[in-house]
Amino acid sequence: MEKYTDLLEQIEEIEEDSSDKLRDLKSLDDCEQVRVEYLGRNGKIPNLFQRLGELPDEYRAEAGKKINQLKSSLDERINEKKRELEEEKQKNQLEEESLDVTLPGRRRGVGKLHILTQVQNELVEIFKRMGFSRATGPEVETDYYNFEALNIPELHPARDEWDSLYLDDGVLLRTHTSPVQIRVMEDHRPPVKIICPGKCFRRDTPDATHYPVFFQVELLWIDRELSFANLKYVIKTFVEEFFGPDFEMRFRADYFPFTEPSAEVDIRPPDGDEWLEIMGSGMVDPNVLEAVDYDPEKYQGFALGLGVDRMAMLKYGIDDIRLFYRNDLRFLRQF
Ligand code: PHE
Fold this sequence. Notes:
Blueprint: H1 2-24, H2 28-39, H3 44-51, H4 57-97, H5 115-129, E1 133-134, E2 140-142, H6 143-146, E3 171-173, H7 179-187, E4 192-201, E5 213-223, H8 228-243, E6 248-256, E7 259-268, E8 276-284, H9 286-291, E9 300-307, H10 308-316, H11 322-326, H12 329-332
Parallel strand pairs: 1-4
Antiparallel strand pairs: 2-3, 4-5, 5-9, 6-7, 7-8, 8-9
Helix pairs in contact: 1-3, 1-4, 2-4, 5-8, 5-10
Bound molecules: phenylalanine.
């Protein structure tokens, strides 16, 4: 009898204890711990069952029933708690991961081409419409392509004008786009009719009109029976298309080792009295043609080189070349 009441007391105690524990539970892991503590193989409830044997026969059935009740009610409550915690967990997760679709989007700036790239493309397009195709060459060159093949031998004084930045092994940063003339002629038999835009480098101290990096567009046309008149026509067409129909142009005698005769081209705006230099040009020197195995008796042609930076400055009234390379967005956004 005593043992029976003892057992009943324990049942009650377990009942209360476990209820308290379940109430304060915060996580599914804790839940599992409670299950092990009470219902596990060595848990408190299985231990109660073991003690049934100590009871007198007449109490055993009754006590067994009570322990069973405790067991199934606890089992149920644990499961209930588990469901609650799972639901809560899911709810929190949904809240965390939810998107506020009413939030305004983040604006991403749309970029645009640099003013020099815009002008370069415009120049190339004008010549393409006249039938020239685009060619390109490397920005690092050998002495041969940058000078020798262009009729500028090692001790020629004209080298001063194109003083380069030298890398190791006789490699240099090209000082003009003219080496592309040689590369293209080496790879193609005439006729050749190309336009080559690209970056050039010179050992210049930056000021309002000089920068150690700048852009050029080179033009070369070789065929039978091309004359200075054809050169003039091409330049005139270009000036009209790029600057407008009212600009005047003139040739001014000049010297380049790779052209003979050579001329600078100047333009004058309709309302201006100043002539502005825009490019160098001339008939390709026979020595250059011979360097690429073209027969100068059969083929002639002309070349010209214009500074993209200079074109952009003239067209947009920009007075300092350094602005192009400073990449200040307040400047760049204007174009
Ligand atoms: N390469 C010359 C320069 O950089 C320009 C030029 C090109 C002149 C083609 C004549 C013919 O100044």
